[in-house]
């Protein structure tokens, strides 16, 4: 990767030019050259969508040449699907094999990100830990590879999942959308006993068309909590892992509900701010 303090961004697949070249105005091969991790956020993009061929043939090779890792994101609900992936050792392995054989290996991706935003039952918790342990043989710091295993969440370290999976993951991405900077240290403190600061990566959201008003970044993209998060470091003297953005394809010149081309001005500026 390119930077000590990583910059990562979730790219919404349904807004890629390959998905709809008439409506959409940006593509993954236009992402900034100093981006460390590009996260594929695949909604409304079925397997026969042209996006996937572009990802394989154009985007991944291009991003790899820039030193950018490409990671696929899936919601935890897929992992917890007990119909297709029963809560048995064979069912757990079936899910891991599906992700590896459908996404990681054929697309030459660099990792997997689990989107976790809800309370788990004890059975769901145990299943998730067991599946992550299986993933850790292929991805993450225990795998002996350079491939990434990430959990992104809006929850705190009080959730028992993080204590058990902390050693298995490269990064914990905290969805800090709309939060005040004053909340950052208390949330970080809830993780720090079992998660090194270098694995803790807060994130903000660009404005999505007709989406929530998080107001994480000013309209001119020169100020806002995105910059506060970029400057923030834990009060215990540790160094955070970096920063991520959601809807990086909306790093656009003005706040609007229209679909316009991204210029990635803020992404470049925030990356440089963290890595002078």
CATH topology: TIM Barrel
Strand order of the largest sheet: 1-2-3-4-5-6-7-8
- Measured between the Cα atoms of the first and last residue, the distance is 16 Å
CATH class: Alpha Beta
State the shape. Answer: globular
Helix content: 25-40%
* Biggest beta-sheet profile: 8 strands, parallel, barrel
The stretches of 5 or more residues where confidence is low (pLDDT under 50) are none
What order do the SSEs take from the amino end to the carboxyl end, as H and E?
EEHEHHEHEHEHEHEH
- The CATH H-level homologous superfamily: Glycosidases
Radius of gyration: 18 Å
| Second rung of CATH, namely the architecture | Alpha-Beta Barrel
Strand content: 15-25%
Number of strands: 8
The pLDDT mean sits at: 98
Computed structural class: alpha/beta
Helix count, DSSP H or I runs of 4 or more residues: 8
Number of domains: 1
Oligomer: single chain
Pfam family, one: TIM-barrel_EndoS
EC number: 3.2.1.96
InterPro entries: EndoS_F2-like_TIM-barrel (IPR057016), GH (IPR017853), Glyco_hydro_18_chit_AS (IPR001579)
Domain Endo-beta-N-acetylglucosaminidase EndoS/F2-like TIM-barrel: 9-245
